[in-house]
User: What shape does this take?
Amino acid sequence: MRILITNDDGINAPGLQVLHEIATDLAGPEGEVWTVAPAFEQSGVGHCISYTHPMMIMKLDERRYAAEGSPADCVLAGLYDVLEGGRPDLVLSGVNRGNNSAENALYSGTLGGAMEAALQGIPAIALSQFLGPDVMQAPDMFEAARVHGPALIRKIWEKGIWDDGHYRVFYNVNFPPVLAAGVKGHKVAAQGYRTDSFFGVEPHHSPTGKRFLWIKGGPQHTATAPGTDAAVNLDGYISVTPMRADLTAHDVLSDLEARLA
Assistant: This one.
């Protein structure tokens, strides 16, 4: 089995090492794990691609490359340059430092890498670690992903729904903000929405007096609707959310057609 891995936290991020362990377990002794990850952190870039400028790519080790681009760029680089057109069986993206539940999924470069793989017709799974006091103070903040990731990713690979439509299903997996022993299991969950948590800006002045704006996130431990991703994460469960890149609001198509007739 051949697996391509990437992330948005960068080539040296500890979560990428955890993902390599998960991928190596899944690929087996005869398999291959290839890494193409951003040279620098790319959090929050979503599904962007470097369409207007080239990116440098560097070989760091056997089957390990860093590219000066987004996670989606890295998937493209892996498919069409590093692997020279050879198709991986699976693309894994993560393990992200911080949750990509609820509306965070829309900004996530981790999800962007998985989405690009799905658009290229390749099965893909994004993995993220929800942060919290227990996790942040632990010697290994990725313990839950490290311990529970291999079996769950294998189960999704072997028993998940992998269709072959134009907008293929890919998966968003979020590990809860607890240590491995506190994980209660996993639940299939829809993407939620935090009703009182939004991104905004916070102004600052440099020593030279110039004004800058930092993008600022809202509270992350706000529960979403019961049974949705962030809600089950905060209850100690790993969430597994099937997704598609199709942004059409299918539920209003017929009504809109009637209104505009």
Notes: The two ends are 52 Å apart (CA to CA).
